[in-house]
């Protein structure tokens, strides 16, 4: 009898574990060009660890749906937290807080590769906390796994180097064909990425963020399944930083 009760409890627990796995289709690894983040009317501030390298910085690792869900397709809890008609990614999936000790062996690497540029006191951990709470809690990864996965992909595919190999280097005067950036990333990583642009202080179009796509296990790059209206033009700048 006892055995039956224990087995039933175990079955129930495993069902809860399975049903609490977040349903999403792929990840975006979003990396940001710091020169473009800073060269806007909002400007930027350096973190308390000093000026970041002239390199892409991680913005986040974002679970995403391949097809946006309408309100009817969302469960009740999600419907209550979203006012938008469609939801294209899950966010804030639970209330688990980021614990620094969980990622303490990654902090040096995170400081170098995932720096805050917001003018909010210079603590990069506040940026990591925001990304963990909004996106990481939906990733089916634990805290260490979430940050280590993002760092691992960034290290494997050095976007700044890939662009430099194609002659695309930071400059406040040069413009580059968007297609040449797209082709360089495809050639350098083996997969298509999505590109997002912003406008500089003088209104110029600049490459802002690169969205690489990763399978839902967080293991392999894939071709990005969704096109993106990234606010780019045929020619874009990669501003100095
Ligand atoms: P998300 O909520 O993940 O879509 O990210 C958007 C938020 O991240 C906005 O509040 C941005 O201001 C902030 N953000 C984007 N890039 C940076 C950065 N490099 N440093 C600090 N905050 C950032």
Give the topology.
Layout: H1 2-19, E1 26-32, H2 34-38, E2 57-64, E3 69-70, H3 76-81, E4 86-87, H4 107-113, H5 124-134, H6 143-156, H7 159-165, E5 176-177, H8 178-189, E6 194-199, E7 205-215, E8 221-222, E9 235-236
Antiparallel strand pairs: 1-2, 1-7, 3-4, 5-9, 6-7, 7-8
Bound molecules: adenosine monophosphate.
The secondary-structure class comes to alpha+beta
Mean pLDDT: 91
CATH topology: Ribonuclease Rh, Chain A
Number of domains: 1
- What is the CATH homology-level superfamily? Ribonuclease T2-like
Secondary structure tally: strands? 9
CATH architecture designation = Alpha-Beta Complex
Q: Which CATH C-level class is it?
A: Alpha Beta
Strand content: 15-25%
GO molecular function, one term: ribonuclease T2 activity
GO cellular component, one term: extracellular region
Signal peptide: 1-21
InterPro entries: Ribonuclease_T2_eukaryotic, RNase_T2-like, RNase_T2-like_sf, RNase_T2_His_AS_1, RNase_T2_His_AS_2
């Amino acid at each position: 009898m006892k055995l039956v009760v224990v087995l039933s409890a175990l079955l129930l627990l495993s069902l809860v574990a399975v049903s609490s796995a977040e349903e999403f289709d792929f990840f975006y690894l979003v990396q940001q060009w710091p020169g473009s983040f800073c060269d806007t009317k909002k400007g930027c501030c350096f973190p308390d660890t000093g000026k970041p390298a002239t390199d892409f910085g991680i913005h986040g690792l974002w679970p995403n749906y391949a097809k946006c869900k309408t309100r009817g397709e969302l469960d009740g809890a999600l419907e209550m937290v979203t006012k938008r008609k469609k939801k294209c990614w899950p966010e804030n999936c639970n209330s688990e807080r980021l614990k620094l000790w969980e990622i303490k062996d990654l902090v040096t690497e995170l400081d170098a590769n995932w720096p805050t540029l917001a003018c909010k006191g210079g603590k990069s951990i506040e940026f990591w906390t925001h990304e963990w709470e909004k996106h990481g809690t939906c990733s089916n990864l634990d805290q260490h796994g979430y940050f280590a996965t993002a760092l691992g992909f960034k290290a494997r595919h050095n976007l700044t180097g890939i662009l430099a190999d194609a002659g695309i280097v930071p400059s406040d005067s040069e413009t580059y064909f968007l297609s040449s950036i797209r082709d360089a990333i495809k050639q350098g990583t083996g997969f298509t990425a999505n590109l997002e642009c912003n406008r500089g202080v003088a209104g110029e179009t600049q490459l802002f963020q690169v969205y690489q796509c990763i399978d839902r296990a967080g293991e392999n790059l894939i071709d990005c399944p969704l096109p993106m209206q990234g606010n780019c033009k045929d020619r874009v700048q990669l501003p100095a930083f």
